[in-house]
Amino acid sequence: MIILVINCGSSSIKYQVLDMKNDNEYSLLAKGILERIAMPMSKLTHKPTGKTPVVMEMPVADHKIGMRIVLDALVNPEYGVISSFSDIDAVGHRIVQGAEYFDKSVLVDDEVIRKITVCCDFAPLHNPAHLLGIEAVSNVLPDVPQAVTFDTAFHQTMAPEVYMYALPYQYYKKYGVRRYGAHGTSHQYVSQRGAALAGIPLDNSRIITCHIGNGSSVTAIRNGKVVDTSMGFTPLEGMIMGTRCGSIDASLVPYLMKKENKTPDEMTALMNKESGFLGMSEGVTSDCRDLVDRREAGDERARLILAKLVLDITKLVGSYVAEMNGVDLIVFTAGIAENNPWLRRDVSANFAYLGAKIDEEVNAVARGSETIISTPDSKVKIAMIPTDEELVIARDTMHLVEDLRK
After folding, report:
1. For 352, which DSSP code?
2. Is residue 34 within a helix (H) or strand (E), and if so which, with residue range?
3. What is the largest CA-CA distance in the chain?
4. Known active-site residue 151
5. Angle (deg, nearest 10), helices 341-349 and 300-323
6. What angle in degrees, to the nearest 10, is found between the helix axes of 110-118 and 127-140?
């Protein structure tokens, strides 16, 4: 079964085309990413298996245009991997927010679309992008079944005292105001792979997973089930991110609205699209790679932003160590964590009191493959696991379509 997996992020479209035989037997036909969407210059990196990778730069205004570029790449006579769109048996999508509507993957229908749309209020940077992806695929492949896998589903094991906010309870009953989390597909995959790599039984484990990318979250997982996670009602809560402020004093919202005469929508845009790396750098960049380059060139503001990034991760990991009464494994994943050894080193150094030790040489070269980066005598295992949300989505999509055909 040939499955196209679409993973629309806040500023990117990741995709894979997989020929799925079963859960563990599959072939990757192509993968790629269109990144820096809505920035001055976007970049498509398309990697067809067995062919020369293709890199193209072009301005991409939004995800709808981006989806057209991705789909065209798949059927390109020179570097495509399918002869036509009819070769695709199913499409699976990553959806950030499913609220309490969904605790598992489902096939797309009108009611599912309606519920995902309702959840746009909870994930304003993501769910609209996901809907654009579903719409774009529907226009090209109207008869191909589509499935959706929710980042929030994995977090549904949190206890009420964890997911409830200390607001009037009526708002939970009326509007579903509670902590939902995000990046669940990634946290699920890397916790399972990390436990296997470290030789730790998943059903008797305390794992903290750090998904650090343009959007970032940290999750506490005990015995394979989520205990707590840093993102909340929306993906805004938690730590500093590319354009999101993370957790702030809630009183700042009405304060700035009054001072700057901003509407609720304008304030939401400020916190989600104008803050984080971008806001602290006064509009210079929302990309960690640019900040690293600027820090190395002596830029003090870049140093400050990256120091806050390390501190935010450290505070979250530390709180989850306390919440679970210890930790057996810390996993780093996603673009920033996978590609910056200094980040893994600096965060891990703050847990030396637990007996955590990084192997400096292994950590310095760990990139692109599953790696234990702690020393053999470290009391806490530390791993770098490249996330593969797309594989999880492809597996779920395959099973849903197989059930549909029975």
Report:
1. G
2. strand 26-35
3. 62
4. yes
5. 50
6. 150
Q: Is 193 left (phi over 0), alpha (psi -120 to 50) or beta?
A: alpha
How does pLDDT run across 145-170, given as a tens digit for each residue?
999 999 899 999 999 999 999 999 99
Report how far residue 212's alpha carbon sits from residue 209's, in angstroms, rounded to the nearest whole number: 9
Q: Who contacts 82 (Cβ-Cβ below 8 Å, separation ≥6)? A: 2, 17, 29, 74, 75, 88
Amino acid at 96: V
CA 370/CA 385 separation, integer angstroms: 5
Phi-psi sector, 50: left (phi>0), alpha (psi -120 to 50), beta: left
Q: What is the pLDDT of residue 138?
A: 87
Residue 124 has pLDDT above 80, yes or no: no
d(CA 182, CA 196): 23
Catalytic residue among 151, 287, 312, 346: 151
Kindly report, residue by residue over 284-342, the tens digit of the pLDDT: 999 999 999 999 999 999 999 999 999 999 999 999 999 999 999 999 999 999 999 99
**β pairing state of 2-8 and 90-95:** parallel
Taking the C-alpha atoms of residue 379 and residue 8, their distance in angstroms, rounded to an integer, is: 37
Q: DSSP letter for 82, please.
A: S
Sign of the CA dihedral running 49, 50, 55, 59: negative
Burial class (CB in 10 A: 0-12, 13-18, 19+), 110: exposed
pLDDT reading at 139 higher than 90: no
Handedness of CA 126, 108, 386, 350 (dihedral sign): positive
Three-state SS for 13?
Answer: strand
Residue type, 83: S
Token pair for 253:
């919202």
Confidence (pTM): 0.85
- Residues 333-375 have pLDDT tens digits of 999 999 999 999 999 999 999 999 999 999 999 988 999 999 9
User: Which residues make beta-bridge pairs with 381?
Assistant: 329
pLDDT digits (tens, 9 = 90+) for 79-98: 999 988 889 999 999 998 89
Q: Would you state the torsion angle of the CA atoms of residues 227, 272, 55, 394, taken in this order, to the nearest 10 degrees? A: 40
